[in-house]
Amino acid sequence: MSVVVLVVIVIISLAWARRRRRRRRKRAIGPELPTTVAPPQTLNVVPVWEIEAPTMESIIQDLAKKKPVRFKAQQLRSFTTNYSTRLGSGGFGIVYKGQFPNGVKIAVKVLNRKSNNRGAEEQFMAEVSTIGRTYHINLVRLYGFCHDNFMSALVYEYMENRSLDKHLFSDTQAIEREKLHEIAIGIAKGIAYLHEECQPRVIHYDIKPGNVLLDANFSPKVADFGLAKLCNRDDTHDSPEGYRGTPGYSAPEFLLKNYPITDKCDVYSFGMLLFEIVGRRRNTKVGADESLDWFPKQVWNEFEKGKLGEMALLSCGIKENNREEAERMAMVALWCVQELPHARPPMSVVVKMLEGEVEVKPPPRPFNYLYSDYTSSEETNTYLYKDTTSIMANSKIQMASSS
Ligand SMILES: Nc1ncnc2c1ncn2[C@@H]1O[C@H](COP(=O)(O)OP(=O)(O)OP(=O)(O)O)[C@@H](O)[C@H]1O
Ligand SMILES: [Mg+2]
Predict the structure, then answer these.
(1) 3.90.220.20, 3.30.200.20, 2.60.40.10, 3.80.10.10: which CATH number matches 72-157?
(2) What does the alpha-carbon distance between residue 270 and residue 293 come to, in Å, rounded to a whole number?
């Protein structure tokens, strides 16, 4: 009997020791760095690590908990091998390629600083906290940040296939039409999450193909959300008059000042991006004789003539089997760019429209401000779409004639 008990005890101890060994192995993902870890500071964003302190293990644990990690400038210098590979630059700063010691690739965006005072640091932490809390398959993940007297930077997941514009407007056109449709839906889902599920809600202000990044499988992730509040832009994207975003994508209310700025400015920019996806071209082209070729207006003209399908086939090189999808995307785009912000659908509805879950109703004329009979439009009184799903059968969205 006692031999049986002894054997059972030995088996249990061996199994326990084996389990412990496995667990320890699992935790040791990256090479160990020095191990003194400073206590987390009280800012509600992240535990803040002392300079020599963080171990890769603790960093990875924080990442797994979806908390952005605070890095020191010298760590970023090491991760980017002294900022040796530049990926590009934009209105917020310069982006460099890097790698964590465990091999995970990163993109480090070194930001133009707003100012150096204490308030600015608090604001930076608050905004990083917001960005760090947003977690969605169609949003670029923020791994961490750096903020000291000399620099502010954000550390993002590296996106293998870079930004959508590089593929959309290149001559090789490697992305299939079906994939482009999936990409459009993914982008719409990412923005819908920012607008409708995040707490606090986030308006992007700069939706455009350059701010959509593609991972190794060409799945889209929206980049640069939350940055508008975080730092100053050094170019035309942000003016003292309150103009925000990139010309060509930015909603008319920024210039016309006829309506308040709401999340519907992102819906407008998404519409402009959608035209570019359908046309696989930049919306604006200037001809040799300086004539302006503006694709969204062409789409509207063809839609009015009932020839959207033909246009899709002829001028956009779309094949017959993608024609219906292209027509639908073009109609959704026309809805998104309505002058009246509240006539533009919310992004969750845009997702449903693109997915074909709801029938897209004929859009009213957009770009009214371009016509000579322009008066600030309050006349739109129409349905965005006809709901054909049983769940939403009673919830057609009717747009108010005026707010
Ligand atoms: N996470 C990332 N992974 C891979 N490449 C990236 C990443 N973030 C940015 N890039 C590259 O860096 C380039 C510059 O990005 P950046 O956001 O600074 O400029 P932009 O998107 O052109 O303009 P904006 O300032 O309006 O965002 C992008 O075009 C993209 O190719
Ligand atoms: Mg960008």
Answers:
(1) 3.30.200.20
(2) 20
- Distance CA(156)–CA(63), nearest Å, equals 11
Ranges in the chain annotated CATH 3.30.200.20:
72-157
Q: Identify the bridge partners of residue 107 per DSSP, sorted by sequence position.
A: 97, 156
Ligand 1: atom nearest CA of 210 is 21
Ligand 1 environment, Cβ below 6 A: 87-92, 95, 107, 140, 156, 158-159, 162-163, 206, 210-211, 213, 223-224, 237, 246
pLDDT at 43: 37
> Residues at the annotated binding site?
109
User: Nearest CA to 175 among 210, 137, 207, 219?
Assistant: 219
Which residues, listed in sequence order, are joined to residue 358 by a DSSP beta bridge?
387
Catalytic residues: 206
Q: Is 312 exposed, middle or buried (0-12, 13-18, 19+ CB in 10 A)?
A: buried
Q: For residue 271, which of 223, 341, 224, 218 has the smallest C-alpha distance?
A: 341
203-232: pLDDT as tens digits? 999 999 999 999 999 999 999 888 766 655
Alpha carbon distance 230, 233 (integer Å):
10
The identity of residue 56, as a single letter, is M
Model confidence, pTM: 0.78
Q: Tell me which residue has tokens 């960005």.
A: 131
Structural class in CATH, domain 165-395: mainly alpha
Which atom of ligand 1 is found nearest the CA of 237? 26
